[in-house]
Amino acid sequence: MIDITAFWWFLLALGVIFFAWALSHIYDMGPAIKDAFRPAPSPSVPHHAPQAQPQPQAKAKASPAPSGEDDLKKIEGIGPKIEATLKAAGIRTFADLAAQTPESLQKILDDAGYARISNPETWHEQAALAAEGKWDALEALQSSLKGGRRHPA
Q: Most buried of 5, 17, 124, 135 (most Cβ within 10 A)?
C-alpha cells in the first residue's frame, strides 16, 4: 500500500515554504507600497495681488515669418530648435546660410550646446541650391543624405 502520511507531510512542507516566501515578499514590498500610496505634498500657492485685466485688442492674425526670412527647416539636418539658434545668430535666409562655412556653423552649434546633435557639413551646399530655387536638385541631394550627412556609397 501507499503511505498517505508522507504525502500529507510533503504537502505541509510545501505550504510552509510558500507561506515563508509570501511573508518575505510582503515584507520586502511593504515600504514600496507605502511610498506608492503616499500622497504628494500640496504645493504652497503664494497670495497674488489682483492683476490688471488686459485691454481687449483687435484679433491678431497669425503672421507668417517676417519678410526676408526663409524656412531653414527645409535643409536636411535642421529642426525647429537649430533654426531658432541660427536665426538668433543672424542667419535668416538660405543665402545667409549658404555664405557660411561648416566650421562657422559648427561654432554656432557648439556655443548653443548642439555640438553632438547635428553636423552642418552639407548645410551651405543645400542652402545654395534652395537660394537659387533649384528644388529638384536639392531634393536629389537630400535623398542621398541622412541627418544632413553624406554616407559612403
A: 124
